[in-house]
Amino acid sequence: MANVVQQSLIEQLRPVISDERIGTYLTAAGFDPDRALRLYIWNALVGEAFHLPVQSVEVALRNRVNRHLVELFGQQWWQNDTFLRLAGRKRATDIETALRRIRNRGAVLDTGQIVATLSFGFWSSLLQKRYNPALWGGRLHAAFPDLPPNQTRATLSQRVKRVADFRNRVWHHEPILKMDLLAEYSAIMELLNWLCPIKAGWVRPHCRVATLMRQKP
Hints:
Layout: H1 2-17, H2 19-28, H3 33-49, H4 51-73, H5 81-87, H6 89-104, H7 111-117, H8 120-125, H9 140-143, H10 153-171, H11 181-195, H12 197-203, H13 209-213
């Protein structure tokens, strides 16, 4: 009887969830409608639990990179012609978009607002090979003092991209139940440790990913 009720609920939810998305959970649940619905809620909750470690990485990364850019190009690096030429058209467009958004909300136009408004994609892109050595040659470990000696700009960039890709999947409410979430969590926390081990140690006790993993239906 319970499954009949849950199947009826699934049919009522199809117009607002979509056949494809609900089908993902039905398949994962062996077509048990009750488990499918519990998996759907669990997927949302575990995605929510990733918010703390991911935003911790994002904020730490943008502040590390911002400090480095300030040292190279001055406090208003986002207006510096040398930086803008180096950054290229796409990154300059990102900055123009950020400036427009700041003006539209009537906020003070300063570096703090620029840093907060630019996307994770902007910050992660600055670690790409094309910006080496101009940004990072001989300066990587000064900019990231807690990065282990055996890690390079390439490995840091790859890890940031992995976290950014996972973040985008979670932030766009995609199913993550088939992924190795403990591996993703470990990768995120290791990156946070590279960015600032003090912050990693502070955040870790408050992360609920492992607890929710044990509660998977």
